[in-house]
Design goal:
Elements: H1 3-7, H2 10-22, H3 25-32, H4 36-50, E1 55-58, E2 61-64, H5 66-92, E3 99-105, H6 106-111, H7 113-123, E4 128-134, H8 137-145, E5 151-155, E6 162-176, H9 189-192, E7 196-200, H10 203-213, E8 221-226, H11 229-237, E9 242-246, H12 247-250, E10 258-261, E11 267-275, H13 282-293, E12 300-301
Parallel strand pairs: 3-4, 3-5, 7-8, 7-9
Antiparallel strand pairs: 1-2, 5-11, 6-9, 6-10, 6-11, 6-12
Length: 303
Amino acid sequence: MSDITSKIKLSQLRALVAVAEHGNFSTAALHLDISQSAVSHAIAALEEDLGVVLLARGRHGAHPTPVGERIITHARQVLQLLETIAKEANLEKGLHGGQVRIGCFRSVATHILPAVIAEFRNHFPKIAVTITEHYDYIDVEQALREGHADLGFTYLPASDEFETWELLRDDYIVLLPPTAPTTMKQINWKQLAAYPLIVPSTNTCSIRIRNHLRFSDYPLNIAYEVREDSTIVSMVVQGLGAAILPRLAAEPVPPGVQACTLPIPLERIIGVAVLANTLQTPAVFAFLDVLMKSKRFALKAVV
C-alpha cells in the first residue's frame, strides 16, 4: 500500500462525491449532516495528500476539475463497493442478528402477531422484531414502498408491486347493545335499521361498509364514524347503537353484547406482503416461514 492510499479516508471520499453531486460545500454539508468547515477540511486534506486540485471553487459553487472528474468516478465505485460489502455481511449474519420490521394494523397486532413473534423468538432469539401500527392497510403498503417496513399485513388482492400470501378471511359482524331484545345469530335489514349505526372512520373500511349497506331495502342511519375499534365497542356497551366491524377488530366481545352476522356476508381477506423484486434478508424469510407454519393459519401463496 502506497503512502497516499494509506492516508485517504472514507469521509474524504464521501465529502468529495457529495460536493460534486450538489455543486457547493454548504448543501453537501447538509446532506452529510456535518459542518461546512468539516467538508472543506476533508477535501483540502484529500487534495493535499493526492497533490492535485479536485474542485474548482468560485462564486457559483464548486465544480470538479478534469482530474477531479476521474477521481470522483473512482470514489463512487469505492463507496458502492462498501455498500455491497455491508449488504453481504448483513445477509450472512441475518439469522444471528439484525431485525425484522413489520407494518400492520391494530387487529393484526393484537390477535395475530403476539403468538407468531413468540414462536419466532424461540427459534431466532437474536433477531429483533419491531412493529409499527397503522390505522389502515394503505399506510402499511406505503411503509413497504418507502422502505420503512420489511413486511406488512394488508388486504388482498394487492397490486403487482407486492408479493403476497393469504393469511385469513375475516368476516364483518354486527355488535348489538345489551338492550337488544332478542338473541340472534343473523340480523336482517329491518332489524338493523332500528339502530343508530357505529362504523370505523378509516377510509377503506368506511367505504366498504357503506357500499355493502346499499343492499338494504330499509334506510340505515350511520350515526357515528369512529377511528378506534375499542371506542366503537365501548359505545355499543353503553347502548349508543349497533356497530359493524371486522370480527378481529371487535374481539374480545364484551359480556352482554351480541355478535351476529350481516344479512348478506361481507369479509376482508388479510394477507402478508413484501415488496416484489427486492432483496430480502434471511431474517425476513425466516419470519415468513414461521408465520406460514403457524398452526393457527392456513396460508397459501396468492398468484
